[in-house]
């Protein structure tokens, strides 16, 4: 569309010489801003982590508590991705195909986790599952521990990552439409068959993107798991909580290299997905 | 005929039943994850009535935290809206070396955990570091463990939000009006201000509001960059964290309600603005 407009109006393009300096200035301004705001801090993190050499990084990252923290993070992220893949699919179907009063509100509510503070999320879960929480008697009856334990941290991460899968799948399902499903149904396919053989394949890239973005976001969650998990070393410490503690205890190489690994991990996941998406389009 | 219609209606019933249970499952999931926690915090924060709520919020430390959160977010929004719109403009309208790179860098802040963002900024601008010490001694600028650090962290985190809101609208903008203005002798800045900018008002507003909502709740980057100094660098989220740590439920709940109210209001507003945008672009 842009191209056709350009082609139709070649004569009134501003003279190149007049627009040149303005154009250079604006591009320079943007690169300067991005450089100071984003690139310089990123470079500082890399040089900070490498300040005592690669050996120090490897030593710091191979400490048992650091490894345990990273495993904990990965484990939570995997569980969260699985749950959101199942429930996210159901939610998307209900939001796109179903119609009932209050649906608009539901649709907006899904975005809530984008704006709710992670600390507030952790605190809400604490009010529900904590020592004096609303559900405390119930949990005590079944001897389940949620607060300051793994289930609470999974719940917190679930809350925070709720929108990613849903927002990824909704446009895909909407544009896929309903005709092919109807055709399958006319040919005698059951609902389940229709989903697996027709709808799911159409949504598969949406699933891939949604899973990666959910995973990346889950890796970086900090505030909510800090409040509900307590960051108990060796028990509820995730990678982000380790970084927080390491800074506090002035173990700078450990903090910086863990931050670098975590940052690069989610960065490569998200940017890789973005690049792949553009390449595929 | 009778047999066929009866199997048909049986099938419909099965679909209807499946639809009902799916809807119920989704509502239950959302209720457990979102709605019940929200109701619990509401009940907890308003336990002592509106007056008690107001007394908690208007105490100096809480009030300062709330005001600090609001003004740093407001400063961020102004800078971010200008620079985000400019970045989107440059990305859409100009061809230059490194354009694809710039486009990728825009997404970078979304991909980096905010705690890591905080660590980065402390390494670069921290008082013990080369650049931070230089800024402190020669210019007297204290960025880290001070309010400017909060603004810097918020700018980093929210940078993609305005760019990605404005970029698609600018890309689809019909340029005929701009060319018409140019033929009538309008200068580039006038064209931008009088023709392009009004068309971008809606996406700029939703990007700005999203940034603001995001900034109100930010915790990870801020606690690293600004620390937790009451009446100086303690923001609303950090205040809630402190109250939870010291088991002061009244303070934590009251501030949480304020933050949730702002978040919910802004989310609904952005949702409404985006629907308007969709209606405008798809007549």
Which characteristics define this entry?
heterodimer, A: 281 residues, mainly alpha, B: 283 residues, MetI-like fold, 2 domains, 12 helices, 0% strand, disordered N terminus
Could you please describe the fold and organization of this structure?
The complex is a heterodimer of chains A (281) and B (283). Chain A has a domain at 63-249: MetI-like (MetI-like fold). Chain A has 14 helices and no strands. Chain A has helices spanning 2-8, 16-49, 53-61, 64-97, 103-109, 112-115, 118-129, 136-142, 150-176, 179-186, 191-220, 223-229, 239-248, 252-280. The two termini of chain A are 16 Å apart. Chain B has 283 residues and is mainly alpha-helical. Chain B has 2 domains: 1-45; 52-281, MetI-like (MetI-like fold, Orthogonal Bundle), CATH 1.10.3720. Chain B is globular. The relative contact order of chain B is 0.13. Chains A and B meet through α1, α2, α4, α5 and α6 of A and α1, α3, α4, α5 and α7 of B.
């Amino acid at each position: 569309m842009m191209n056709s407009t350009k082609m139709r109006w070649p004569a009134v393009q501003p003279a190149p010489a007049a627009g040149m300096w303005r154009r250079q200035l604006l591009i320079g301004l943007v690169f300067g801003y991005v450089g100071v705001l984003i690139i310089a801090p990123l470079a500082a993190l890399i040089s900070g982590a490498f300040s005592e050499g690669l050996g120090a990084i490897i030593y710091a990252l191979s400490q048992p508590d650091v490894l345990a923290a990273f495993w904990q993070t990965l484990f939570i992220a995997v569980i969260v991705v699985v749950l959101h893949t199942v429930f996210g699919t159901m939610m998307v179907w209900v939001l796109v195909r179903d119609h009932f009063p209050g649906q608009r509100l539901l649709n907006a509510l899904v975005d809530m986790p984008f704006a709710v503070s992670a600390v507030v999320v952790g605190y809400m879960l604490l009010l529900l599952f904590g020592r004096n929480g609303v559900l405390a008697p119930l949990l005590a009856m079944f001897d389940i521990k949620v607060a300051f334990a793994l289930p609470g941290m999974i719940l917190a991460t679930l809350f925070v990552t709720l929108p990613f899968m849903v927002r990824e799948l909704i446009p895909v399902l909407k544009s896929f439409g309903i005709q092919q499903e109807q055709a399958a149904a006319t040919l005698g396919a059951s609902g389940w068959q229709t989903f697996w053989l027709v709808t799911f394949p159409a949504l598969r890239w949406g699933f891939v993107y949604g899973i990666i973005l959910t995973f990346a976001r889950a890796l970086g969650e900090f505030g909510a798991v800090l409040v509900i998990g307590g960051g108990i070393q060796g028990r509820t410490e995730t990678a982000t909580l380790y970084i927080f503690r390491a800074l506090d205890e002035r173990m700078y190489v450990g903090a910086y290299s863990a931050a670098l690994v975590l940052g690069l991990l989610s960065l490569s996941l998200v940017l890789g997905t973005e690049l792949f998406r553009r390449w595929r389009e | 005929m009778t047999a066929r219609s009866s199997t048909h209606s049986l099938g419909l019933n099965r679909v209807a039943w499946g639809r009902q249970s799916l809807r119920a499952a989704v509502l239950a999931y959302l209720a457990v994850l979102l709605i019940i926690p929200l109701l619990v915090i509401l009940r907890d924060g308003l336990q002592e009535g509106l007056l008690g709520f107001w007394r908690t919020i208007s105490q100096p430390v809480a009030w300062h935290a709330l005001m600090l959160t609001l003004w740093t977010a407001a400063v961020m929004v102004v800078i971010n809206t200008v620079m985000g719109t400019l970045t989107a403009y440059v990305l859409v309208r100009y061809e230059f070396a490194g354009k694809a790179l710039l486009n990728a860098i825009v997404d970078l802040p979304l991909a980096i955990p905010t705690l890591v963002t905080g660590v980065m900024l402390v390494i670069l601008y921290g008082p013990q570091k080369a650049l931070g010490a230089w800024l402190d001694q020669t210019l007297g600028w204290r960025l880290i463990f001070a309010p400017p650090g909060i603004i810097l962290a918020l700018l980093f985190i929210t940078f993609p939000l305005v760019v990605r809101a404005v970029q698609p609208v600018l890309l689809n903008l019909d340029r005929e009006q701009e060319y018409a203005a140019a033929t009538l002798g309008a200068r580039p800045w006038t064209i931008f201000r009088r023709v392009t900018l009004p068309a971008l008002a809606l996406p700029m507003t939703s990007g700005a509001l999203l940034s603001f909502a995001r900034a109100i709740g930010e915790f990870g980057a801020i606690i690293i960059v600004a620390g937790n100094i009451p009446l100086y660098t303690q923001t609303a989220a950090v205040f809630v964290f402190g109250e939870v740590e010291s088991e002061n439920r009244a303070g934590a709940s009251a501030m949480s309600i304020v933050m949730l109210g702002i978040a919910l209001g802004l989310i609904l507003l952005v949702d409404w603005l985006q629907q308007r945008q969709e209606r405008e672009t798809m007549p």
